[in-house]
Each structure stands twice: as structure tokens, then as C-alpha cells.
Amino acid sequence: MQLIADFLPLLLFLGAYLYDDLYLAVMVLMVAMPIGLALKTVATRKLDKVYLGSTIFLLVMGTATVLFRNPLFLYWKPTVFYWVLAIVFVGSQWIGERTIAERMFSKVGDLPAQKWRILNLTWAVFFAAAGFLNIFVAYSYSEAIWVNFKVFGLTAITFVFAIGQAIWMTKSMRDPDGKDEQLETE
Fold it and tell me: How far apart (Å, rounded) are the C-alpha atoms in residues 13 and 127?
């Protein structure tokens, strides 16, 4: 159910874009995202704050895109959202008892505080870079290429990055003090 809530809106956006144009696609996405948020909330019995934030950003930027018939609002939506996430991740280094990364991933396993900070900053850098990459593609290539990049490229990049982080976390949990690396070098 969660995968449907996460990816169905993107697929509906792409389908509407291929069927007609960007403006229909935005309107479809503006309907699909709140429905996806509701489905995800019911299925997990927990509000996904990142999905909520993305939905709110979409509703604001999507409305501006449709009202002003200007795709730049939509192009900037992922970039601004990613940059806000980067700022939140960086800010959590000093605000609160735990970083955002630790709050999100501590159910998976435990890491030393320094490794949580590294993971947290790595996600912040990733979000900042993804925001730059999105706006670079939006301004450098055609609308059709940006739509495909938004649906497939950013999703794939995020997936690959998350897998890499999961592997790093698994290695760090197995060897939280770096003793294995120390033995290999001796």
C-alpha cells in the first residue's frame, strides 16, 4: 500500500503528461498526492511528514503553475523542497536530541552518535545536490526531458543513494568502532 501511495501519483502525472500536457499532469498530481497521503496515513496509522510537506509544496507550486500557466513554478518545486529538507537535516545537528537521520532510521539499527551525524550530513548533501541537479535539468533541457527526469531520474537516484546508505549503515552497525578496518590494515 505504501509503494502505491508513493509512486502512483508520479505515474499518474506521467500518464497525464503523455496524454495531454504539463498542466493536466499537474492537476492530476494535485489530486493524486493528497489521496496518496491519505492512503499512506491510513495504512501506516502514522502521518508521513516528508510526504505531507511534499504534498503542501506541490499544492502551492502546482496552483501557481496552473493559474499563471508557467511551468517554472513546478520546475522549482522539487528543488525548493529538497533544499528545505537539506536545511532541516543540517539544522537537526544542533536542534533536538537526535538528528533527523537517527529519528528516521533508528528502527533499523543503532549507530554511534558520530555515525548518525555523518549519515545525517550525507543526506543533507544529497538533498542539496538533488535540488541543484533538478533545476539544472529543468533549465538545460526540454520540458519532456525534465518530466522524465523528475519521474524516473530523481526516483532512481534517490533509490540508489538510499541503497548505498543502507549498505553503509549495515557495515557501520556490524563494526560500530571500526575494528574490522583496523585489523585489515595490520
Answer: 22
Tell me how many degrees the CA angle 40-86-128 measures, rounded to the nearest 5: 110
pLDDT at 185 over 80: no
Helices 49-68/72-91 angle, 10° precision = 150
Query: Is the pLDDT confidence value at 181 over 80?
Result: no
23 close to 69: Cβ distance less than 8 angstroms: yes
pLDDT digits (tens, 9 = 90+) for 126-145: 999 999 999 999 999 999 99
Pick the closest to residue 165 from 88, 108, 91 (CA basis).
108
pTM of the model: 0.87
Cα–Cα distance for residue pair 134/108, rounded to 1 Å: 30
